[in-house]
Design brief:
This protein has 156 residues and is mostly helical. It has seven helices and no strands. Helix 2 packs antiparallel against helix 4, helix 2 runs parallel beside helix 6 and helix 4 packs antiparallel against helix 6.
Length: 156
């Protein structure tokens, strides 16, 4: 549902929808490097993606309502739609950024950095898991040795 935040209608958020409204209300200050047609393109893309967002929300609600069972759905279609949605989001933000600053955003570095950070977090989590497993094994060994000593003392 994080994707839905990008399209939030709440006026208090800095969503794509609200950035578009601000740009439409003040194009000279906020988006001097693009045309009204560009802003209309973004508006149309937001509306086109509404159905994808509704599908995501439906699946989320089904999963929450039926968390203890397997919810069958056409996951492949959903994944393809999410990929389309992500590409559209990148495109819309790029248009707005270009409109504001006159330069597009290069997502390559962001993607590379995200992959690197994700890998680092995963390695950290694996180390923590291994450390916790070792603590459990040490505790089990300690308990086992204590029980053996206890048995030896009661015999003697």
């Amino acid at each position: 549902m994080q994707l839905a935040k990008i399209f939030d209608k709440d006026e208090r958020t800095i969503s794509l929808r609200n950035l578009l409204i601000a740009a439409q209300n003040n194009p000279i200050e906020l988006t001097p490097h693009i045309t009204n047609e560009d802003l209309t393109y973004i508006e149309n893309k937001i509306e086109e993606n509404e159905s994808i967002l509704e599908d995501i929300k439906l699946i989320r609600d089904q999963r929450l309502a039926h968390w203890d069972s397997i919810v069958t759905n056409d996951s492949e279609l959903l994944i393809d739609n999410i990929k389309i949605l992500l590409e559209d989001v990148k495109s819309m933000y790029n248009i707005l950024r270009y409109g504001h600053e006159g330069i597009p955003y290069n997502y390559t570095k962001l993607i590379r950095t995200t992959k690197c950070h994700t890998s680092q977090i995963f390695r950290f989590m694996c180390k923590e898991r291994d450390r916790d497993i070792q603590k459990i094994k040490d505790a089990e060994k300690f308990i086992s040795e204590s029980e053996n000593q206890s048995d030896d003392n009661s015999i003697g």
